[in-house]
Amino acid sequence: MSLPLLGSNVQVEALPSNVIATKVHTENIADTNVTIMSQEYVDRTLVLVTEVDKIGYLVQAQVEPGEHTAEFLQNKNRDSITIPTVTLVPLFGTPPAQYTDLYALYATQIAAAICADLYSADNILGNMKPVIVGLALRQNPSSQDTPESDLDFVQERTKLERVLSALSHTRVW
């Protein structure tokens, strides 16, 4: 069976290269290249943070602002704040056993930073899109078989702060 030939009425156009808003930024943090990639979809924001050029553990973070969060942010009235919550739902993979809490901290802080960046009095109490966070952090060779309490929290905090700062270079939301 042969297919009919397409007539001259059919036009094929290339898709624009920016169909999905994407930005990538690489920064040297503690002698390691950390790459952050962000993509904006209609229903979600994707943020990948990798030190090993892999997607890694995927988790969905949903920020639910507190009842008075918008008022607090607008008026700086610290008595009226209800702390927002971030719900994490693992999607794919698992973090290394000793990094479970650290990965949860990264995902929570990244989602909260995006939520704060998107703040406006109109949408803070509305629906905030979930943030899918992919994390592939390099394990410290000396801590691979040690409990979480042996992690260098000062170094990890510094790295997290630098990642959150570098996140602004990949703003697509």
From TrEMBL:
PANTHER family for this protein: PROTEASOME ASSEMBLY CHAPERONE 3
Protein name per UniProt: Proteasome assembly chaperone 3
GO biological process: proteasome assembly
Organism domain of life: Eukaryota
InterPro entries the UniProt entry points to: Proteasome_assmbl_chp_3, Psm_Assembly_Chaperone
